[in-house]
Known about the structure:
The chain has 117 residues and is an alpha+beta fold. Helix content is 21%, strand content 40%. The chain contains two helices and six strands. It is globular and about 45 Å long. The termini are far apart.
Amino acid sequence: METKDKVWSDISMLVAMGSPESGYEVKINVPEITFLGVKDQPDFAEAWITFYPNDTVIELRSLKKYFYQFRNKIISYERLINTVYHDLVNGYLPKRLRIVMIFRPRGGIRSKLTIDS
């Protein structure tokens, strides 16, 4: 039996570009991520991604398409940040990855989740 918040994300759309140098960090802001919350209501989040590349960096257009796939998926806050984290780690094999997601108020409560390697 599948749980309602089970997400099958498609990481094949994530494109990797060769990293021109080493020893730097990439900071990416995704200002609006839309998804369906656990009560089938639209939910919104903002993501801050700090990425320390090995051999590849994230192609931003593909990242935008990647996040777009969550629009019609039912997923909890915690499952969303973990799914994104694991997909980016598996897709790019960074030296370090830190994701902060700020979830907009639902029922008067705002949440901020952080995951860091």
